[in-house]
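Quick note —
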Amino acid sequence: MRIWVNGRPETAYEGETVFAALIASGYLTLRKSHRFKEGRGGLCGMGVCYECLVTINGSPGQRACMVEVEEGMEIGIDDGKGL
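Predicted structure written out below.
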């Protein structure tokens, strides 16, 4: 299925989490830390660490590891290259 990451089309598979789809598409940095603006990516993969926060369909602060992809889903990441 097709998802959109920062306006770019990417391929994902049914049953896959947003986190898995992002990693498979090469997105390792998902946000910047508040204090030092360092790149952050998923750490635990099970919703505990909150390092994989992204914007999903306009709703910010979503844990990418806890949401399954859907056709046409729009994902925004703050990878330092702009949303």
